[in-house]
Structure formats: C-alpha cells, structure tokens
Amino acid sequence: MEETSQIIKTTGENGEEVFMKLQEIVTVDDKDYALLSVVEEGTMPDDEEADELIIMRMNKTDEECTFEIIEDDEEFNYVAKAITDSDELDEEE
C-alpha cells in the first residue's frame, strides 16, 4: 500500500465540486484503487479521524489519473474484503 496525502477535486452526483483527501492507494489483482475521505469546506481531516472512506477505481494514463465509481457490487465487495483482510494482517504484525 502506498501512503499519500493529496487533495483531489472531483464532481459529485449533482455536478457540484467535491474535495477529497487521498488516504491510500491499494492494488488488488493488478488494478489500483483509491481510498478517499471527503474534505469538509475549511477543514482538513486527520488520517485517523476520517468518518467514511470511499473506494474508487483509479485509471492512469501518461497525462492524467482519473477516479471512477465502482458500480459493480461484486467488484466493490471483492476490493473491500481485500482491503479489510490486508488491514487485519497489518494489525497482527
């Protein structure tokens, strides 16, 4: 898992700008996924205090990186389980 602390701007469901903090990048089956937390206006969430993590698929090209909602429930559950299992292994060490 890669540690990072970037703020990204994305577009919400209603077309509004949403700022998110990139908490981690994880790779599951050779695909990269971003763990993000919403940044409330005027605040910066601590890594430990993120209320809710959002998992998005990352698509990288030479020029840019885009984030995509995982609409397939099977893929989402598989990735979430892989992340949870990885976290449990990290806690045991």
Describe the structure concisely:
With 93 residues, the protein is an alpha+beta fold. The chain is built from one helix and six strands, in the order ββββββα. β5 and β6 (65-69) form a beta hairpin.
Topology:
Blueprint: E1 2-3, E2 7-11, E3 17-28, E4 31-38, E5 54-60, E6 65-69, H1 73-92
Antiparallel strand pairs: 1-3, 2-3, 3-4, 4-5, 5-6
Overall description:
- The protein is an alpha+beta fold and 93 residues long.
- It has one domain.
- Helices cover 22% and strands 42% of the residues.
- The protein has one helix and six strands.
- The protein has one helix at 73-92, and strands spanning 2-3, 7-11, 17-28, 31-38, 54-60, 65-69.
- Strand 5 and strand 6 form a beta hairpin.
- The radius of gyration is 14 Å and the shape is globular.
- The two termini are 15 Å apart.
- The model has no long low-confidence stretch (mean pLDDT 80).
